[in-house]
Design goal:
By secondary structure, the chain is mostly beta strands. It has helices at 9-15, 19-25, 32-39, and strands spanning 3-4, 7-8, 44-45, 50-53, 56-59, 72-75, 82-93, 98-108, 113-120, 130-144, 147-157, 165-176, 179-196, 202-216, 219-235, 241-255. It has one domain. The protein is 8% helix and 56% strand.
Length: 271
């Protein structure tokens, strides 16, 4: 098998899964409303696709549109019979900000009953840099032979045209008894940022981080392959806009597993 810097192409392909496929898989669980009614017995209808529980709004997914505040659900193929459900609980939506939490549930597929859940306070808060999508990552994040984690990705997008910004973060969760535990928090796996004159001239830096599980002293550590590409655009004498890409030397970062969680260096983590 061909490799890039010691990484198999199969690993790279897994890490760079097609977003369209991921989003299709994130709406594959059937009657989301029935799951919501079991998870929130006090929820009441508040619109065609919205429900209220306490002072929070839940939005049911729509097959015809993408709403970053809508519930997402995916079958956990690494753990048959279980569904993964992420439920944004939105408290307030303003012109330039959102306030809300995120409930992450593991649901018994035959009954629709939540078995484990974790509420992540302020996980849906945003401002000028908005949350644009939530999705599950069910790559085989095996912490140990008998321990499997799943991922939740949040995508962010800036609103400035002269200073475009996009970012994707990954968090990992593990079932521990009747609860869910966080094992990796907000690792930045993709980022694109830059500035340009709205015509041609500008500079962009794109960072990708690809994950691979490797043996460690207390379970599986994570090897992170970081690749950075710098792109510069300018108008040529002919009047055409030309772009030059320059790759920065790749580096590998090791995230050690202490038996309970991974510590992420501050510069690799969204704050």
């Amino acid at each position: 098998m061909r490799t890039i810097g010691g990484w198999g192409l199969g690993t790279l392909a897994l890490a760079l899964c097609v977003p369209t496929l991921a989003r299709a898989q994130d709406q594959e669980c059937g009657d989301i409303g029935a799951i919501v009614r079991q998870a929130y017995p006090d929820a009441v209808a508040d619109g065609e696709r919205t429900m209220r529980t306490g002072h929070r709004t839940l939005t049911l997914p729509s097959p015809s549109s993408i709403n970053p505040h809508a519930i997402v659900c995916r079958r956990w193929r690494g753990s048959p019979g279980r569904l993964l459900v992420a439920i944004p609980l939105i408290a307030e939506v303003g012109v330039d900000s959102t306030l809300g939490d995120l409930d992450v549930l593991v649901v018994d597929e035959p009954t629709g009953m939540p078995r484990q859940r974790l509420r992540i306070s302020h996980a849906m808060d945003d401002d000028a840099v908005r949350i644009s999508a939530i999705s599950f990552d069910t790559a085989p994040y095996r912490l140990a032979p008998d321990r499997l984690a799943f991922g939740v990705r949040r995508e962010w997008a800036g609103s400035s045209r002269p200073n475009p910004f996009r970012e994707t973060t990954l968090s990992l969760y593990e079932i521990r008894g009747a609860a869910l535990a966080s094992v990796l928090n907000d690792l930045i796996v993709q980022r694109s940022q830059g500035e340009w004159d709205l015509s041609c001239a500008g500079h962009t830096v794109v960072t990708e981080r690809l994950l691979r599980m490797i043996p460690g002293p207390k379970g599986q550590d994570i090897s992170v392959l970081e690749r950075i590409t710098q792109s510069t655009s300018k108008e040529a004498k002919s009047g055409e806009c030309s772009t030059t890409d320059q790759a920065v030397a790749a580096r590998t970062i090791r995230l050690s597993f202490d038996g309970a969680r991974y510590e992420v260096p501050r510069l690799l983590q969204r704050r």
